[in-house]
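STRUCTURE:
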């Protein structure tokens, strides 16, 4: 048998390697032959001496309070040790494998440490077998030499490493192993943990570590099977993804929150909007796009499928593969085939994944590398949604108190959940928002409630959290529906809830100190629309408002909450019509009931004047040939659009039309009718200013014979009779047939007329001839486009 000392003396030192002598605390570089010590690879040895021992540690200098990974033995004489890197040798490799009976890899090199202890020459060898390692100790003197291996008091397969003691003058041990979760395992070890936590550890025969268990987004179902169990929370402007990372939305757009390649026809998106401030965005609604349909989860617990509203209860309702239910805490939508649930309480959305292991998450809820612009959904966003605003800081906010409030998430009972769900993202979201935005509308509890609900996914009940924080688990503003330009908030005084105007929407009215839109003037009506939430801001009750006529009240749109006041030709509501130079003004007033002009009043008083102003109608000319039966002509006169029809009759009853083949005799009496359609006779009348005849179609041709001059019969032609003019929307006159001497037998009749506002005007021309018998007719007016609009506001 080969003597170990003689055998090891045959080792060949690696080329270029120099012996290092250590007499004081030193760091020995062994990176050219690193040693994998019980599963941890090291390239340095930290050597120091005590009164009795030499300490050779791999990770730091020896500290008795925290020992580390060390080899310890009797201190050499004169505290001197020599270190060499030795080249691999196939004979030596076989010898070590025979001695250990466990090493399987090839020898690569070794570290040789020699020293003198009393009469004994000591050599300690550390062999590098890649993932494996061995230690050999030889001594040639008298007496027992002891060396110990330690691994920081960590248990190795139920055997304490610091109790694995090697005491031998000539022997070899295997110092291979695997490390996992602060535990050391011997080669060839397989550990199947409790199926409740779904993990197993395998340390192969060559000390290669293999682990299996649930991924970072998974949890153990309790039967050894891993399933996804991750929560994405979206609250206020903040998205806390499934990895616990934060993202803050600064604009007012819609974004993709969740999608997965395993279900291409499913998408969860969040729509962010402003509330009391323009510079802070809030999650306003959540939309589930399923198989081409949109399921909208909105504030107040309203759920819409495309454009129809769904009625939900605590019992699930299946809609396009999504189970929908609603209770006092909010609305839950669950996609059963992928085990994804989406909860929304009007302020906070939580997307919980419980699907099979391996499912990936995309969108803001996933650990996505996509930029915000890539995840922005333009088809669900307004065109100006990317605009960001700045506003003056709210000086009433005490950020120190806010921070103290948000830090409750690190105290009991929330602290019991801190190991499962990191509270820091929730605390940051809470402080960032509440240091900028007032703690109203349930916002003081919103982030605490979001964290508590996320904890419930890990079966943390957090008993007593509502009583400690003064919060409620019920949804804020449940069953109160607001319009698109509104949000639900709480009144400052009573704490009741109502619909408030969004800041961006309200700003365009506040800039003009107005309560609504401009007056709309149409063909036969005028209307003014007031904004319901602006009226409530002024504490004005719309139901107590009226027009000049007390029976004319505002109509409320149940969807938009806009209040509209209007009048038209059939219901004038006390409208006052006046003229001012070349304009006609239609004016009405929205006022409080029992409006008082006294010096003082103890009730809110409202007076909103609104008016439509039109240009006076122009004078228009119409041409008619006697034998044409009738002529219809569309005329635009200022803001009025109407049709004028001219007809000729051979009888006073105006029943026998003059036709193209009628035999008309000279001096035969003809009755003319100028009739309009599309005018409101209660407002305007038609005035025929003049009529004259020519033998050509041109009204300026000669010769010319006047029939009506300045609205009256031509005194030079006694056959002309004006029967009705300026009274209604039609005019009648008659004359005896004639012809131009030496001219054509055709007679062209030209009439010039205008519209006259009746209120405040006498539209009937004053003539010197005896009064004619006149008929009455209904009146109408038809304004279409205002020359300008005037609205004045007082309240």
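SEQUENCE:
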């Amino acid at each position: 048998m080969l003597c170990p000392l003689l055998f090891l003396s045959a080792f060949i030192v690696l080329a270029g390697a120099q012996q290092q002598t250590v007499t004081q605390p030193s760091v020995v570089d062994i990176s050219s032959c690193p040693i994998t010590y019980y599963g941890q690879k090291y390239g340095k040895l930290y050597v120091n001496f005590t009164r009795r021992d030499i300490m050779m540690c791999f990770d730091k200098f020896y500290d008795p309070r925290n020992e580390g990974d060390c080899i310890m033995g009797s201190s050499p004489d004169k505290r001197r040790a020599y270190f060499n890197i030795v080249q691999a040798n196939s004979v030596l490799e076989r010898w070590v494998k025979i001695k250990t009976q466990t090493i399987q890899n090839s020898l690569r090199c070794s570290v040789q440490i020699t020293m003198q202890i009393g009469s004994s020459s000591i050599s300690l060898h550390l062999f590098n077998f890649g993932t494996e390692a061995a230690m050999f100790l030889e001594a040639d003197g008298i007496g027992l030499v002891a060396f110990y291996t330690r691994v920081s008091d960590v248990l190795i397969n139920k055997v304490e490493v610091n109790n694995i003691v090697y005491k031998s003058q000539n022997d070899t041990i295997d110092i291979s192993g695997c490390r996992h979760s602060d535990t050391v395992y011997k080669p060839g070890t397989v550990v199947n943990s409790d199926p409740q936590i779904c993990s197993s550890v395998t340390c192969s025969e060559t000390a290669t570590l293999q682990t299996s268990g649930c991924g970072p987004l998974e949890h153990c179902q309790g039967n050894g099977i891993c399933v996804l169990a991750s929560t994405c929370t979206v609250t206020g402007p903040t998205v806390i993804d499934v990895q616990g990372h934060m993202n803050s939305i600064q604009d007012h757009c819609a974004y993709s929150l969740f999608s997965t390649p395993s279900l291409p026809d499913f998408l969860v998106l969040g729509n962010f909007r402003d509330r009391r401030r323009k510079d802070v965005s809030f999650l306003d609604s959540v939309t589930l796009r399923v198989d081409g349909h949109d399921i909208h989860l909105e504030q107040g617990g309203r759920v819409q499928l495309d454009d129809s509203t769904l009625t939900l209860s605590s019992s699930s309702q299946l809609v396009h593969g999504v189970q929908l239910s609603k209770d006092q805490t909010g609305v839950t939508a669950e996609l059963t085939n992928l085990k994804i649930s989406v909860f929304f309480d009007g302020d906070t959305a939580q997307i919980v994944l419980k699907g099979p292991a391996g499912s990936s998450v995309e969108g803001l809820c996933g650990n996505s590398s996509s930029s915000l612009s890539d995840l922005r959904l333009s088809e669900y966003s307004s065109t100006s949604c990317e605009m960001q605003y700045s506003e003056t800081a709210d000086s009433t906010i005490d950020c120190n108190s806010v921070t103290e409030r948000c830090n409750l998430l690190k105290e009991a009972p929330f602290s019991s959940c801190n190991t499962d769900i990191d509270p820091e993202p929730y605390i940051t979201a809470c402080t960032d928002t509440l240091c900028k935005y007032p703690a109203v509308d349930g916002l003081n509890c919103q982030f605490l409630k979001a964290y508590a609900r996320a904890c419930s996914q890990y079966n943390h009940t957090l008993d007593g959290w509502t009583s400690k924080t003064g919060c409620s688990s019920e949804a804020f503003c449940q069953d109160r529906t607001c319009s698109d330009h509104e949000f639900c908030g709480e009144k400052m005084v009573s704490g009741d809830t109502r619909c408030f105007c969004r800041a961006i929407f309200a700003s365009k009215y506040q800039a003009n100190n107005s309560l609504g839109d401009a007056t709309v003037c149409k063909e036969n009506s005028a209307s003014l629309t007031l904004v319901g939430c602006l009226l409530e801001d002024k504490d004005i009750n719309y139901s107590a408002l009226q027009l000049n006529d007390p029976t004319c009240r505002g109509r409320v749109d149940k969807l938009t909450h806009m209040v509209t006041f209007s009048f038209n030709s059939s219901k004038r509501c006390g409208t006052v019509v006046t003229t001012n130079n070349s304009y006609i003004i239609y004016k009405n007033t929205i006022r409080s009931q029992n409006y008082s002009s006294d010096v003082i009043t103890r009730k809110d008083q409202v007076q909103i004047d609104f008016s439509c102003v039109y240009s006076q109608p122009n004078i228009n000319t119409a041409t008619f040939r006697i034998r044409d039966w009738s002529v219809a002509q569309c005329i635009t006169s200022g803001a009025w659009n109407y049709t004028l029809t001219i007809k000729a009759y051979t009888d006073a009853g105006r029943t026998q039309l003059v036709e193209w083949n009628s035999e008309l005799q000279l001096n035969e009496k003809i009755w003319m009718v100028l009739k309009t359609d599309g005018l409101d006779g209660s407002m305007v009348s038609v005035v025929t200013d003049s009529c004259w005849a020519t033998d050509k179609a041109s009204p300026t041709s000669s010769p010319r014979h006047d029939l009506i001059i300045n609205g009256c019969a031509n005194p030079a032609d006694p056959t002309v009779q004006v029967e009705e003019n300026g009274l209604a929307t039609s005019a009648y006159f008659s004359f005896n047939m004639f012809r131009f001497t030496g001219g054509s037998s055709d007679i062209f009749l030209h009439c010039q007329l205008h519209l006259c506002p009746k209120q405040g005007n006498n539209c009937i021309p004053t003539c010197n001839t005896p009064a004619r018998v006149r008929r009455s007719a209904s009146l109408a007016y038809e304004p279409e486009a205002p020359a300008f609009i005037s609205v004045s506001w007082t309240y």
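REMARK: DSSP finds nine helices and 58 strands in the chain.
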